[in-house]
């Protein structure tokens, strides 16, 4: 009982590939986030699941039933659009009731479902308003209520929070998460925002360049990214990727500069290391021993982000305690803890133990 | 019929050309399509395409008094028309009328719209007053102006008498009759054209004028170098629909001059009507109708082409 | 500083002068027509323009001695039917061109576009024969049937329908609406401003028809108002200017009222559309 994608492909008439061979299993009742930079095909994938876009090749099945040729309504799902797709000429109540009426539910059932859904998203008082009389967050709630009112077990959301301001986004994130848990529906959620993916998902699918990069839990994705792209996509500020050379079988020289010891046997001579900003150590140094210069400092409260340029021109960012004081153009010495990720020259994660987890 | 032939009040906007957005194609579409588009297609076929071809067909024959074709004569009817001084004079009259109406309608419309686009207290009243002729139909316009032009009791006659000026025979002198028709047509179309121009002028970004004000540019210069170039697409649109509308003029002529005096206002559509339904010469009338269709098609095509490109300034 | 103010004020005065002058010129035919409609014809013919014999007699005469009410009624019926026919047929074909995919769609659309280029004035002879063959002469349907649909209306609504957010249609797809339901429950309500606009154009277009009705109507039973005034003017009432002016006023006043109400409605409609 789940949604299974098998080698799903999308090509347009001109032969341009938008998605190539996507496979995944989305379990019933889970919060599944499809994330990737714009243009990676994530919305197309969602629309293919919905049945709004044709599949060029491959197979989509929902609960052991191949749905490739089923029309959207027969797939028994709901969708929340980025623009909410509210009917401007209908009241909030009628917007929520729209699909139920179309599916010919009984009057009593429609009323009950709509009222319950509106209650769940705290819109009971606004049920007679028109969409244009609502704020962005309220419109978003109407769209959610529409999904809630439906009896469909799968809900698709296409960047539902991208039209909201930052604070509202955090609030709605929590509400959507709570709703999904409460209703126990399968939620397939598309976003370009890695924070949304990390905070809400049971499983994340990372899409990039028409390919699946990795599927995993937020922790897996963060701790054991399949490759350099995934590593860079998650985490703020992004992970620092620096060139490294083999020193001995278990140690590396990073950026031609400082040494890092690793718990595995290194086989390649030239490789790359990924160091999260909080794994870097920064100390003041005189010009003789310094390996970098401070370029910018952002104060965040408990910590600061320090942006620096190595003497060879590579740039890094480090998270440091807000107690430490640096000025612009200070010369500094940057080193790292041994908690680093190793990538081959072409970006594959070769850190010990990663191969077991990565399934893409 | 100028008011109704507003070919592009809704300009073709760019539509998302995202092939991802292609609608799902089902076999059922065919069934729906026949229901949705079938009736219109049938009606247009019966009342536009068929008659156009039929007219073309008739124009290549001689006809009897019932409008039935008798003898195939090829382009003879056209040759006869073009070599007939009567028809050439008629075409000339039509062109003079079209040019006159187009020029004065646009000039007056621009003047009014430019004046009414000023930000002055009470300007809304003037906007309403200027657009009032939109509610005037052909026959009402004709009646109002017929009285004004009336030689014995008319308002102009009264005016000239009061000012001790020589009386002008509006409807009995060929030149004046043409003026009378042009004035009435311009007056009737003015409300609509004014509103279209006003809308265009108001959509010019005010920052352009503010920038010009800062530069100390005179308002006359602003009109010719900012307003006019910015509204040039509208100018083109209004020109073509005015040209098309006035080529098709019939009602005012029928009501005010009946083509006279001495054919001075006997324009194309009036000829088509007279030759067929009073002269009984269906072949000649059809040839004239085809000439009209070619002229109208040319200007409409011009408008479509321009709309497609949407080039301005 | 004072200098600038002075020129600004002068400019303003000049603007108002021009505005008022032009308003007078444009409205003069109305004023003259409506003023004379209250005067006895005898005074009008004598040139006694500022007569004080103001009365509603001309209106009374127009209503009782002429079939003007009949003409008005005929025209209203024909215009309303034409308007609704346009709204239905044009919106349906526009829906097909935007939301349906079918064979020869491009060809059909090109045909519609070509239709817009062909003047109906050039088709009067065969159309007259068609209507005659159908036995519709001197009957309302002679004026309604040939203009049940409009290529221009289809084109205009197509432009508008194309602006309908695709998500709305997709949301309806997911809920399982068929094309009739999407047409009726989504596309028409979303585009009601354009529909109102088309309705107004179609109504006015039918109201202003002149050449076609003059060909196919012979009696007061079906004669429309545009031809009716000509009829009055050519009959025995020819020189009864007071009554003719009253008839013209009777026709023009309702359309102007409708126009003003409409203008207000269109404005608020536009705003509504813009805020979505």
Please give a quick description of this structure.
The complex is a heterotrimer of chains A (360), B (313) and C (276). With 360 residues, chain A is α+β, with helices and mostly antiparallel strands. Chain A has helices at residues 42-50, 92-102, 107-120, 136-149, 166-183, 194-200, 218-223, 228-233, 354-357; strands spanning 2-11, 17-27, 31-35, 57-62, 65-66, 77-80, 154-158, 186-191, 203-208, 211-216, 240-248, 251-254, 258-261, 270-275, 280-284, 292-299, 303-310, 315-321, 331-336, 341-343.
List the helices and strands and how they pair.
The complex is a heterotrimer of chains A (360), B (313) and C (276).
Chain A (H helix, E strand, L loop, with lengths): L1 E10 L5 E11 L3 E5 L6 H9 L6 E6 L2 E2 L10 E4 L11 H11 L4 H14 L15 H14 L4 E5 L7 H18 L2 E6 L2 H7 L2 E6 L2 E6 L1 H6 L4 H6 L6 E9 L2 E4 L3 E4 L8 E6 L4 E5 L7 E8 L3 E8 L4 E7 L9 E6 L4 E3 L10 H4 L3
Parallel strand pairs in A: 3-8, 3-9, 6-7, 7-8
Antiparallel strand pairs in A: 1-2, 1-4, 4-5, 9-10, 11-12, 11-14, 12-13, 14-20, 15-19, 16-17, 16-19, 17-18
Chain B lengths: L27 H31 L2 E3 L5 E4 L3 H7 L2 H32 L6 H8 L7 H12 L5 H8 L11 H29 L3 H9 L4 H12 L1 H16 L3 H6 L11 H10 L4 H28 L4
Antiparallel strand pairs in B: 1-2
Helix pairs in contact in B: 1-13, 3-7, 3-10, 5-7, 7-10, 10-13, 12-13
Chain C lengths: L1 H35 L4 H5 L11 H9 L2 H32 L5 H13 L6 H10 L6 H5 L6 H11 L4 H10 L3 H12 L1 H16 L3 H6 L8 H10 L6 H35 L1
Helix pairs in contact in C: 3-14, 4-8, 4-11, 4-13, 5-8, 8-11, 13-14
Task: Explain the overall architecture.
The complex is a heterotrimer of chains A (360), B (313) and C (276). Chain A has helices spanning 42-50, 92-102, 107-120, 136-149, 166-183, 194-200, 218-223, 228-233, 354-357, and strands spanning 2-11, 17-27, 31-35, 57-62, 65-66, 77-80, 154-158, 186-191, 203-208, 211-216, 240-248, 251-254, 258-261, 270-275, 280-284, 292-299, 303-310, 315-321, 331-336, 341-343. Chain A has 360 residues and is α+β, with helices and mostly antiparallel strands. In chain A, the strands form 4 sheets. Chain A has a 6-stranded mixed β-sheet, with helices on both faces. In chain A, strand 11 and strand 12 (251-254) form a beta hairpin. Chain B has 313 residues and is mainly α. Chain B has helices at 28-58, 76-82, 85-116, 123-130, 138-149, 155-162, 174-202, 206-214, 219-230, 232-247, 251-256, 268-277, 282-309, and strands at residues 61-63, 69-72. A two-stranded antiparallel sheet of chain B has the order 1-2. The two termini of chain B are 29 Å apart. The model of chain B is unreliable at 1-25 (pLDDT under 50). Chain C is an all-alpha fold and 276 residues long. In chain C, 76% of the residues lie in helices and 0% in strands. Chain C has 14 helices and no strands. Chain C is globular. Chain C starts with a helix and ends with a helix. Chains in contact: A-B, A-C, B-C. The A-C interface holds A 50-52, 71-74, 77-79, 81-85, 87-90, 98-99, 102-103, 131-132 and C 165, 167-168, 170-177, 181, 185-186, 189-190, 192, 272, 275-276.
């Amino acid at each position: 009982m789940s949604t299974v994608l098998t080698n799903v492909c999308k090509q347009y008439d001109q032969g341009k590939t938008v998605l190539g061979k996507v496979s995944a299993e989305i379990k019933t009742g889970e919060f599944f986030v499809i994330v990737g930079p714009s243009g990676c095909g994530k919305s197309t994938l969602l629309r293919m699941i919905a049945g709004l876009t044709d599949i060029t090749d491959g197979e989509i099945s929902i609960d052991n039933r191949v749905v490739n040729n089923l029309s959207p309504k027969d797939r028994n799902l709901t969708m929340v659009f980025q623009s909410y797709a509210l009917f401007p000429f209908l009241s909030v109540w009628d917007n929520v009731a729209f699909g139920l009426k179309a599916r010919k539910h009984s009057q009593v059932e429609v009323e009950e479902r709509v009222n319950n859904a509106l209650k769940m998203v705290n819109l009971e008082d606004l049920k007679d308003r028109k969409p244009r009389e609502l704020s962005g967050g309220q419109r978003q709630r109407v769209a959610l209520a529409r999904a809630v009112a439906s009896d469909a077990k799968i809900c698709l959301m296409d960047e539902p929070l991208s039209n909201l301001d930052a604070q509202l986004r955090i609030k709605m994130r929590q509400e959507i998460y709570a709703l999904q848990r409460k209703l126990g529906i399968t939620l397939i959620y598309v976003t370009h925002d890695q924070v949304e993916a990390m905070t809400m998902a049971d499983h994340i699918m990372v899409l990039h360049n028409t390919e699946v990069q990795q599927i995993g839990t937020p922790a897996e994705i963060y701790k054991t990214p399949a490759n350099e792209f995934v590593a860079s996509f998650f985490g703020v500020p992004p992970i620092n990727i620096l060139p490294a050379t083999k020193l001995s079988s278990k140690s590396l020289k990073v950026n031609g500069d400082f040494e890092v010891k690793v718990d595995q046997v290194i086989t390649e001579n030239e490789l790359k290391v990924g160091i999260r900003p909080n794994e870097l150590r920064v100390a003041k140094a005189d010009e003789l021993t310094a390996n970098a210069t401070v370029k910018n400092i952002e104060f965040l409260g408990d910590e600061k982000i320090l942006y620096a340029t190595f003497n060879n021109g590579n740039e890094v960012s480090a998270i440091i305690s807000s107690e430490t004081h640096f000025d612009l153009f200070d010369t500094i010495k940057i080193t790292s803890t041994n908690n680093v990720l190793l990538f081959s020259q072409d970006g594959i994660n070769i850190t010990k133990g990663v191969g077991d987890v990565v399934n893409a | 019929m100028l008011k109704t032939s507003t070919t592009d009040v809704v300009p073709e906007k760019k539509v998302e050309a995202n092939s991802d957005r292609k609608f799902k194609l089902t076999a059922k579409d065919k069934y729906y399509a026949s229901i949705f588009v079938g009736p219109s297609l049938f009606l247009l076929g019966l009342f536009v395409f068929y008659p156009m071809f039929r007219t073309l067909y008739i124009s290549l024959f001689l006809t009897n008094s019932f409008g039935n074709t008798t003898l195939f004569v090829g382009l003879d009817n056209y040759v006869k028309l073009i070599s007939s001084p009567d028809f050439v004079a008629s075409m000339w009259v039509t062109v003079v009328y079209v040019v006159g109406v187009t020029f004065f309608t646009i000039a007056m419309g621009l003047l009014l719209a430019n004046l009414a686009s000023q930000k002055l207290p009470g300007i809304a009243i003037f906007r309403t007053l200027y657009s009032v002729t939109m509610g005037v139909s052909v026959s009402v316009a004709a009646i109002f102006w017929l009285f004004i032009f009336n030689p014995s009791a008319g308002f102009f006659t009264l005016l000239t008498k009061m000012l001790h000026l020589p009386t002008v025979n509006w409807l009995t002198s060929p030149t004046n009759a043409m003026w009378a028709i042009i004035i009435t047509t311009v007056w009737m179309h003015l409300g609509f054209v004014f509103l279209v121009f006003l809308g265009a002028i108001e959509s010019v970004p005010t920052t352009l004028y503010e920038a010009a004000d800062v530069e100390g540019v005179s308002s006359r210069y602003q009109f010719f170098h900012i307003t006019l170039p910015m509204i040039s697409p509208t100018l083109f649109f209004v020109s073509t629909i005015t040209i098309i509308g006035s080529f098709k003029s019939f009602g005012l002529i029928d009501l005010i001059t009946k083509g006279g005096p001495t054919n001075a206002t006997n324009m194309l559509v009036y000829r088509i009507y007279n030759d067929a339904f009073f002269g009984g010469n269906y072949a000649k009338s059809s040839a004239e109708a085809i000439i009209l269709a070619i002229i109208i098609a040319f200007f409409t095509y011009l408008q479509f082409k321009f709309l497609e490109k949407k080039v301005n300034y | 500083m004072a200098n600038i103010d002075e020129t600004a004020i002068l400019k303003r005065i000049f603007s108002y002068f021009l505005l008022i002058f032009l308003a007078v010129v444009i409205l003069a035919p109305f004023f003259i027509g409506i003023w004379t409609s209250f005067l006895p014809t005898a005074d009008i013919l004598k040139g006694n323009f500022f007569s004080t014999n103001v009365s509603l007699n001309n209106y009374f005469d127009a209503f009782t001695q002429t079939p003007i009410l009949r003409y008005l009624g005929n025209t209203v019926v024909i215009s309303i039917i034409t308007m609704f026919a346009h709204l239905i047929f044009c919106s349906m074909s526009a829906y097909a061109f935007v939301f349906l995919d079918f064979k020869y769609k491009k060809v059909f659309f090109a045909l519609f576009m070509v239709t817009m280029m062909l003047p109906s004035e050039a088709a009067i002879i065969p159309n007259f024969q068609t209507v005659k063959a159908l036995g519709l002469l001197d009957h309302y349907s002679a004026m309604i049937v040939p203009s049940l649909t409009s290529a221009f209306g289809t084109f205009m609504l197509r432009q508008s329908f194309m602006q309908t957010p695709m998500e709305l249609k997709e949301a309806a797809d997911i809920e399982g609406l068929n094309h009739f339901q999407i047409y009726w429950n989504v596309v028409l309500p979303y585009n009601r401003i354009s529909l109102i606009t088309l309705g107004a154009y179609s109504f006015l277009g039918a109201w202003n028809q002149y050449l076609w009705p003059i060909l196919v109507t012979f009696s007061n039973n079906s004669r429309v108002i545009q031809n009716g005034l000509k009829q009055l003017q050519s009959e025995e009432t020819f020189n009864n200017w007071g009554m003719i002016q009253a008839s013209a006023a009777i026709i023009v006043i309702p359309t102007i009222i409708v126009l003003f109400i409409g203008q207000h409605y269109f404005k608020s409609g536009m705003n509504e559309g813009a805020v979505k």
